[in-house]
Design brief:
Layout lengths: L6 H12 L4 E4 L1 H7 L8 E4 L3 H7 L3 E5 L4 E6 L2 E7 L1 E3 L11 E3 L3 H6 L9 E3 L3 E3 L4 H7 L8 H7 L2 H13 L5 H10 L8 H12 L7 H6 L3 H4 L1 H6 L13 H10 L5 H9 L4 H4 L1 E2 L5 E2 L3 H15 L4 H13 L8 H11 L4 H13 L6 H21 L12 H7 L5 H16 L6 H12 L2
Parallel strand pairs: 2-5
Antiparallel strand pairs: 1-2, 1-8, 3-4, 4-5, 6-7, 8-9, 10-11
Length: 444
């Protein structure tokens, strides 16, 4: 098999080989190349020791030199070059206590997580596949290298990575590997929140976010996201729904584009429903107030998983407003833009559309037509530059103080009153009109 290596990767490999060392592209970049995907990163493994790697390249960074990794800088690009190694005992379900350098490629490949990630390549030897990675790619399987329990005991994050790769590649997990996951999933408690977050996001923005239900079935979400398990099996006996809460959430995830903010919003949008479910005398279910509870759950989970503040702010706001339903009139849309935020409003429309598509056919066309009408009004509002925020108001605090108002709460309330007025009447957003209104209110 021939893989076309980037010029700089070939340069690094050739330089190492010219000085008597073995060197190969290894891991995910080989897997993705075989699958005709464009690798995000190119990693290189070599028999050269870290000091020897540093001697052969003029610009390097000691990114993980204690584990044999040196980053080689070529122009504006960087490449991790790692010495063949054998991992010592693992003490924290994540990191080996020590690493032992070796001159055998097979030993280095043996320590890797899954067969499809344990292949190496260079132009001279071509594909090195000791553990059946190609066979598993052809069979569409996620399978551990060697004994699954050993691999997962070494690094518990691999448990979540298995489901993530399954979602990205749409490959099922091989039965023995799945059995080991079920047994060892509790070890994920030892993994840092940041690592869990990164893998969860990759799963959610993959082509198959529905694989989160596999994570539930394998006992993974019970450890990292028990809020998901609470949605499983919660029936929604209402004309607007045909799936239980978890099933609806999966369909909503698949109905929105592969964007981090949108996928996270759809993950959390109905997590408050189990706690808010009420059934009336006719057997119909109601979930009044679930959006606010979902918002609080989203904030709690995202803080727990160490998401950045901006992501938390956007996702929780969208979760809060995901069920905000209005008639598509210019006044209503402008007011919604004010409440939700001009920049977030397109996200809100996408969330509403995904939510509706994941519901029952009951009044679906009517709901979708309303969302489309809102989108058109939103675009017209932007083109017309209508006022929807205080920043767009034709007067500010300075102008009101010139009229005679004093700084403080009364002035702030007046600005908000003016904003509410011009949201309803955009043509009134003129300095002279607004100032005259204020004078009349003040009796001047």
């Amino acid at each position: 098999m021939k893989i076309t290596l980037p010029a700089k990767v070939s340069m690094i490999i050739n330089n190492l080989q010219m000085h008597g060392f073995e060197a190969y592209a290894v891991g995910g970049c080989v897997r993705d190349s075989i699958l005709a995907k464009s690798p995000e990163d190119w990693d290189i493994t070599t028999s050269a020791k870290p000091a020897e790697i540093k001697r052969l390249f003029s610009r390097t960074v000691d990114t993980g030199i204690e584990h044999g990794t040196v980053t080689v800088l070529l122009g504006k690009e960087s490449f991790e070059v790692t010495t063949y190694r054998i991992d010592g005992m693992y003490e924290d379900s994540r990191h080996p206590k020590e690493v032992i350098f070796t001159n055998r490629l097979e030993e280095d490949l043996r320590r890797r997580d899954f067969t499809i990630n344990a292949m190496a390549y260079n132009d001279e030897a071509r594909l090195i596949d000791v553990f059946g990675g190609m066979k598993d790619l052809n069979r569409h399987l996620i399978r551990c290298v060697g004994e699954p329990k050993e691999r997962f005991s070494e690094d518990a994050l691999r448990i979540l990575r298995a489901v993530r790769f399954s979602a990205q590649l749409n490959f099922p997990i091989e039965p023995a590997t799945a059995d080991a996951i079920r047994e060892l999933a509790p070890a994920l408690e030892n993994i840092s929140a940041e690592r869990i977050q990164a893998e969860l996001v990759k799963l959610l923005v993959s082509a198959h976010p529905e694989q989160i239900r596999d994570a539930c079935e394998l006992g993974i979400t019970k450890v990292i996201l028990p809020e998901w398990d609470a949605m499983e099996g919660v029936v929604q006996n209402t004309p607007h729904h045909k799936y239980n809460v978890a099933e609806h959430t999966v369909h909503a995830l698949k109905s929105v584009k592969r964007d981090k903010i949108l996928r996270l919003t759809m993950l959390f949008h109905d997590m408050g429903k189990p706690a808010m479910k009420k059934t009336d005398g006719n057997g119909r279910d109601h979930f009044k107030g679930h959006a606010l509870v979902s918002e609080e759950i989203a904030r709690s989970v995202m803080r727990r998983l160490k998401f950045d503040n901006e992501t938390v702010k956007k996702v929780t706001r969208l979760v809060c407003y995901h069920d905000y339903r209005i008639e598509a009139t210019p006044q209503n849309v402008r007011r919604a833009m004010n409440r939700i935020g001009i920049d977030l409003f397109p996200y809100y429309l996408a969330v509403r559309m995904a939510d509706v598509k994941a519901q029952s056919p009951y009044r679906r066309r009517e709901k979708i037509e309303n969302i489309i009408a809102m989108r058109e009004i939103y675009q017209e509002t932007l083109v017309n530059e209508d006022c929807v925020t205080l920043r767009d108001l034709a007067v500010g605090g300075r102008e009101l103080m010139e009229i005679g108002m004093k700084p403080g709460r009364e002035l702030g309330n007046m600005l908000n009153e003016l904003l509410e007025w011009v949201i309803d009447e955009p043509d009134c957003n003129k300095k002279e009109i607004l100032c005259e209104y204020v004078k009349e209110k003040l009796g001047l």
